[in-house]
Write a structure and sequence with these properties.
The chain is mainly α. About 50% of the residues lie in helices and about 0% in strands. α1 runs antiparallel to α2 and α1 runs parallel beside α3. Keywords: Copper, Copper transport, Ion transport, Membrane, Transmembrane, Transmembrane helix, Transport.
């Protein structure tokens, strides 16, 4: 059976309208080239200078959002620690303490721990997504992630050490 019906290099009829030249490029080495740059998803395809500028701004905002999430998590953890410590230990809570609505330190601490775990999972997911963005190996994108971390830390990191405790972002 002969499958050699000619040159199949022109795929312009297979959606996208641009043929092979419009496919996402995957760089495994550092580059400043933005030709056919895709950021994480094939739908986030950089095709012009304008889309590059908007995408870099979005990456900065995403990295800032990560710092905001870390800040929210820290504030939640601190507030819950104070609240749980102010509750009665394991004694019976009576109806004469309506603010506590029948909770004790143990049950409130367990619920707070579940919420902290969810925030922790969200932070890790977010950090890994930023890592994937960084791993485009594109210098412009890497700078945008770093600028987002910088501006995010300025806005949200007042009560945080500059030493990172997460290995990924």
């Amino acid at each position: 059976m002969d499958h050699g019906h000619g040159d199949h290099s022109d795929h312009s009829g297979h959606g996208g309208g641009g043929g092979m030249n419009d496919m996402c490029s995957m760089n495994m080495l550092f580059t400043w080239d933005t030709t056919n740059l895709c950021i994480v998803f094939s739908q986030w395809h950089i095709r012009s200078t304008t889309s590059l500028v908007f995408s870099l701004a979005a990456v900065v905002l995403l990295a800032m959002g990560y710092e905001a999430l870390r800040s929210v998590s820290r504030r939640y953890e601190f507030a819950m620690k104070k609240r749980v410590e102010s509750m009665p230990r394991d004694e019976s809570v009576t109806e004469s303490t309506p603010i506590l609505s029948g909770q004790n330190q143990s049950s409130a601490g367990q619920r707070a721990h579940v919420i902290k775990a969810a925030l922790y999972a969200l932070q890790n997911f977010y950090a890994f997504m930023l890592m994937l963005i960084f791993m485009t190996y594109n210098g412009w994108v890497m700078v945008a992630v770093s600028l987002g971390a910088f501006f995010g830390y300025i806005l949200f990191g007042q009560d945080t050490s500059a030493t990172k405790d997460n290995a990924c972002h």
